[in-house]
Amino acid sequence: MRADLETERLSALIAGFPGKRILVVGDLMLDVFVWGRVSRISPEAPVPVVDVTSESSYPGGAANVARNLRGFQAGAAIMGLTGNDPPARQLLYLLGLARIDTSGVQQSSDLPTTLKTRIIARNQQVVRVDRERKSTLTSTQMKAALDHLERQVEELDGIVVADYGKGFVTQPLADALCAFARAHGKILTVDPHPHTSIAWRGVTAIKPNRAEAFLAAGLPPAEPVFPVLADRSLLEAGRRLLEIWRTQCLLITLGEHGMLLLEEGAAPYHTPARAKDVFDVSGAGDTAIAVFTLGLAAGGTPVEAAELANLASSIVVGKLGTATLSAGELEAALSAD
Predict the structure, then answer these.
(1) How far apart are CA 271 and CA 117, in angstroms?
(2) At what angle do helices 7-15 and 327-336 cross, to 10 degrees?
(3) Which domains does the chain have, with CATH numbers?
């Protein structure tokens, strides 16, 4: 962590998280984890046989971003679309259990809820099974989403867009979100999907990972160079994205190498990863965008928010499943760091 960043200041920002209300907009899904043991190889094919010991379900996709926010404050809300099926009922039950506002969730009988099932054995993911069908919003659904946003926007401190490429986030919705944020002076952060052509203009921050950054910048992927601030290919990708997206800042997540923050008119800033053990990276990006947005909403600078997001992500990758963390865990890690 940079020498001039004081622990007391970052701690004060965390203390400000509970009073912030953040709306998460994006693709909703249910994550199911099947836990088991492997003791033999199948005689039918060279694959492990998993003896199931337990099963658990968690809100996934944009719902996991809301779940991460809920670990720090009471004002987490979600806007998205589900089917009208058992996975949707389970998802809405879990969100209700977490006291996340689901008044912005629409349901469609014509659409299955996205369901991702991960089979875990010996703390390793054996396979993932996806059940989904991409579908864009109808004109009626779009109007309902914008009406909900109109009703909510004055109470919000920030909006997070979590685009998983399942169809909820479209260019018209993106344009409307940007217009709302500008008109009402709200923080708007985006976790983009690499295989959509949605243009973002004038948002507060966008958080791609390294591969997504090269793809969005129209550059071929390049091998990492160390130290990170000497990685000219990565810096060029970031420079291009600042121009293309016209965002105030760009936070590029680099996995085990931490995060790179780029701001117009400021020197690039690298914060190295602090994870001691990595068991599961599922949902680490959701944690990053949630805590980064809360850091900004609490009055932090982009550098301060990036440090908190990086520290939070370093904690959740040491847990199994789409994990979250609490303010107490983040405070403890901050003190230890």
Answers:
(1) 33
(2) 180
(3) 7-39+47-336 (3.40.1190.20)
Distance of alpha carbon 62 from alpha carbon 173, whole angstroms: 15
Average pLDDT in the 100-116 region? Answer: 96
* CA angle, 37 then 41 then 47, to 5°: 95
Instruction: Round to the nearest angstrom and report the end-to-end CA distance of the chain.
Output: 8
Residue that wins the pLDDT comparison between 146 and 280 = 146
Please work out, in degrees rounded to the nearest 5, the angle formed at the alpha carbon of residue 136 by the alpha carbons of 135 and 139.
135
Please, are residues 11 and 304 in contact by the beta-carbon 8 Å criterion? Answer: no
> 317 vs 18, 88, 133, 283, 322, CA distance in Å?
23, 27, 29, 8, 9
- With bands split at pLDDT 50, 70 and 90, how would you rate the model's confidence at 280? very low
Q: Indicate which residue of 31, 101, 231, 286 is catalytic.
A: 286
Residue 244 burial (C-beta neighbours within 10 Å; 0-12, 13-18, 19+)? middle
286 catalytic per annotation: yes
How do the residues of the chain divide into helix, strand and coil, expressed in percent and rounded to 5? 40, 30, 35
Angle at 210 between CA 127 and CA 252, to 5 degrees: 120
Residue type, 101: D
Distance of CA 85 to the CA centre of its chain: 25
Q: pLDDT tens, 236-261?
A: 999 999 999 999 999 999 988 999 99
Structure tokens belonging to residue 154: 């004055």
The band of 320, judged by pLDDT with boundaries at 50, 70 and 90, is: low
Q: Comparing C-alpha atoms, which of 158, 131, 137, 116 is closest to residue 17? A: 158
Whether residue 221 has a cis bond before it, omega within 30° of 0: no
C-alpha–C-alpha distance, residues 127 and 251, integer Å:
30
Q: Residue 122, Cβ neighbours under 10 Å: how many?
A: 10
Gap between the Cα atoms of 310 and 292, Å rounded: 8
pTM, full prediction: 0.93
CB atoms within 10 A of CB 333: 16
